[in-house]
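One such shown below:

_____
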Amino acid sequence: MQPGTHSPPDINARKFDVGCTIRVSHTFESLHAHVELDDNVPIFPGDEVIVHGSPVKVPYGETAEIRRTATVVRAGPIERLWTKATGRLEMMELLEFSFSERTRL
């Protein structure tokens, strides 16, 4: 392997480290934070991604792009199934239904 290059992580391992890019925006137009894992590592239901390093603080009106290391911990089959089942139920809690008729004043 050449200096400055890295080998891709073993995405089938239960736990592995991978580089990542954090993009944070704290502006009038947008307030968001996104983490992009190197090598397009797929994340599945129940998996955990732990980003290492100090908290990212971006002053109002600014954006930042930061390199960090993340640890991916793969969920086991039972945990993955449980996450899929409960995730659908929790999604229903976000929905609000109203069957009332509109009345005129």
Notes: The two ends are 76 Å apart (CA to CA). The CA atoms of residues 15 and 73 lie 4 Å apart. The longest helix spans residues 77-94.
